Amino acid sequence: MPKRAFVSPPVAWLSALVWILAAVCSAPAQAGWFGSEPDIVVTVSSAYLDVYSGPGRGYPIHHALEYGEPITLLKSRAGWIKVATGRGFEGWIKREDMQYTLGPDGQVPEFTDEYRTDAVVNHFELGAALGRFGGADSVTLSLGYRFTRHLTLEASYEQQAGQYSDSELLSAGLLHQPFPEWRVSPFLRMGAGVINVNPSATLVDTEDREDSVLQASLGVYVYLSRRFFLRAEYINHHLLTTRKTNEEVSEWRVGFNAFF
Amino acid sequence: MASWLQRVFLIVPVCTALLWPVGSALAQADDPLEPMVAADIKRRTIKEDMLDSENFELGGYVGALGIEDFGSNTVLGLSLAYHINEDFFVEAIYGVSEARQTSYELLSGAVELLTDDQRELSYYSLAVGYKVLPGQVFISRKLAFNTHFYVTAGVGNTEFAANRYATYTLGAGYKIYLSDFFAVDIGMRDHLFNHQLFGASRQTNNFEGRLGLSVFF
Questions:
Q1: Lowest-confidence region among A27-31, A224-228, B198-202
Q2: Which of A242, B80, B85, B122 is the most exposed, fewest CB within 10 Å of its CB?
């Protein structure tokens, strides 16, 4: 009885599938498909370093690193760095303690605290701010992109809740920082947008209206921590109304901006 | 049929066994290069930018929101936080819920103070948070999770009854980190705003109890 010389197609498919699955599952470990970055390894250069169980000074210290011990830096969060030892022990060390380590080149790793403008160039910036828009409370959300040391392109969405009307303002603008290297750095912003005003529903019927807005603002970025800033600004809104006279509204705003 | 099945069980392991060493050998063939690559790495200076930072926290929550005079209902929300340092964080939350009928509406039977659309409530808040009482909870002798309490204070808006109300939000909660980047949040918030739905302006406290999950990135 003659047998087929080779495997029937379904069997071949199945075995191929199993093999591919197995290969894919083991691939990251072998070739590092998902994380091609090499490990960041430093050695401890002080007598010992405390390792905490969590990213905060209140968490228990559950390990100590010895002089000359190599550690792998895994990630950072809010001023703390997660490390792993050669024996696979993991924990958190203070960011300041990086000065007691040496990189593979024999130098202390560059974990500087000074305000470095270059750290935010080519980064997106997410901001949220609260303010007073004329007599109304305002909340603003903004997204910016810092494309040079001095210039940021920005889009923002603002809501105002007033006693007699609510409004929404969508705008885009260009922001210029003449002295980006200063810790407290002033800026000038020019923008334009659209404002939509809805009078309160409890009042007698009045129509919603939509106007164009031109904005000029003066403000300041205050460096708080790495890639995190306080931003305060004064904005002059010039509403181009369809009525006979245009309207001017001043706004004070303060908020936080984080670069990512 | 039986022989077909047998072949499947025979051939799959054989193929895997035959092809496996090829894969491993390929991987091992890379090994002799490693010292060269490593030598190259040795010269680099380590900078903070090389390290992956996990300061953002994205989460979702579900809970119950008591809307003063309008009963309580399920609330669903999203949160985005940025951790500034080990003590402070800033947080944006957005939640949706729906108001029920007031007792007056229920008792009178026919009166409807709000339409269905006006009963929909949404809020957002931008808050500053402070982390307190860090520690660990032990689930078993060997397994412990990091935890901390937090308090928040924020400002935002509430959209309700076809109006927008400036809202202050106070909150507190307990966070349990199941891993470094995954946390459970048991919290409460009080959303305070004034409205004139019953004539005179009155301040309302709208308490919310919630359970959330979040990831750090």
A1: A27-31
A2: A242
Residue at a domain's end among A75, A102, A129 = A102
Domain interval for residue A61: 40-102
Closest alpha carbon to A40 in A70, A85, A72, A65:
A72
Q: Please report the residues numbered 1 through 40 in chain A whose beta carbons come closer than 8 angstroms to any beta carbon of chain B.
A: 7-8, 11, 14-16, 18-19, 22-23, 26, 30-31, 37-38, 40
Question: Hey, is the C-beta of A228 within 8 angstroms of any chain B C-beta?
Answer: yes
Q: Taking the CB of residue A18, how many other CB atoms lie within 10 A of it?
A: 17
What band does A246 get if pLDDT is binned at 50, 70 and 90? confident
The region, left, alpha or beta by phi > 0 then psi within -120 to 50, assigned to residue B55 is alpha
What is residue B125's predicted lDDT score, i.e. its pLDDT?
92
Query: Does pTM top 0.90 for this prediction?
Result: no
Q: Where are the domains of chain B?
A: 2-42, 52-216
Domain B52-216 -> CATH class: mainly beta
B71, exposed or middle or buried, with CB in 10 Å at 0-12, 13-18, 19+?
Answer: middle
Query: Could you count the other beta carbons within 10 Å of the beta carbon of residue A100?
Result: 18
Which residues of chain A have a CB within 8 Å of the CB of B19?
Answer: 19
How many Å lie between the alpha carbon of B140 and the closest alpha carbon of chain A? Answer: 16
> In the predicted model, is pLDDT for residue A206 greater than 90?
no
Q: Residues for chain B: how many in total?
A: 217
pLDDT at A136: 87
Cα gap B25→A12, rounded to integer Å:
23
Give the residue on A whose Cα is nearest the Cα of B13. Answer: A15
Highest mean pLDDT among A18-27, B160-169, B187-196: B187-196
ipTM score of complex = 0.71
Decide if A163 is inside a domain. yes
